[in-house]
Amino acid sequence: MEHRTRVRFNRSDSATIRITNKEKNMEMINNLLTITPFSWIALFSVFIAAGIIGMERQISGKPVGIRTSILICLSTYMFTTYSGITQPGILNTRIIGQIITGVGFLGAGVMLTRNGIIVGVTSAACIWILAAIGITIGLNHSYTAVKISVLVVILLIGLDSLERHIPFLHKGAYRKSHQAGEDKHGKK
């Protein structure tokens, strides 16, 4: 003899099933948007901070533009964040030391010697500061990093303007590079 069990659903059971499906959908969306151990605010800060510096460099026609700036800052942020994963609350400072070493090589690759004059030193320094900003964001100081990037751009634009307009700042490599440009083209 066959035994059959009938299950009756009332409206409240149907609503419970719908809520469960909505919860599963929300959980799936949440899983897609979660980027643990990173945060969306920190990533947004990376794009803003590095984008500000990169925009100035790109407009100035320098080698380190927007994409390069964001990639340098993003990678240092990620490495710094990873350094704190193994032991929460304890930062693995060896990772930061390795970031500094690697960025030093990257900066050295940007510098060149042209007609006995070293060029690209400011671009190399920008790579250093971008790495420092990425580390700052990785240490959960996103707003400070954005403020520093604004100060860097003010410094780059302001000092460039001062070097062009104040005679005693025309000494050294700055003067030689502009004289080499004048000699090559025959005029200023």
Descriptive overview:
There is one protein chain. The chain is mostly helical. It has one domain (40-185). 71% of the residues lie in helices and 3% in strands. The chain has helices at residues 11-33, 40-59, 66-83, 93-110, 121-138, 142-165, 173-185; strands at residues 112-114, 117-119. Strands 1-2 form a two-stranded antiparallel sheet. Strand 1 and strand 2 form a beta hairpin. It is elongated. 21% of the residues are buried. The model is unreliable at 182-188 (pLDDT under 50).
Gist of the model:
With 188 residues, the chain is mainly α.
How large is the count of helical segments?
7
Q: Into which percentage range does the β-strand content fall? A: under 5%
Largest sheet: 2 strands, antiparallel
Query: What fraction, in percent, of the residue positions are helical?
Result: over 70%
Overview features:
2 strands, two-stranded antiparallel sheet, mainly alpha, 188 residues, elongated
SSE diagram, text form:
Blueprint: H1 11-33, H2 40-59, H3 66-83, H4 93-110, E1 112-114, E2 117-119, H5 121-138, H6 142-165, H7 173-185
Antiparallel strand pairs: 1-2
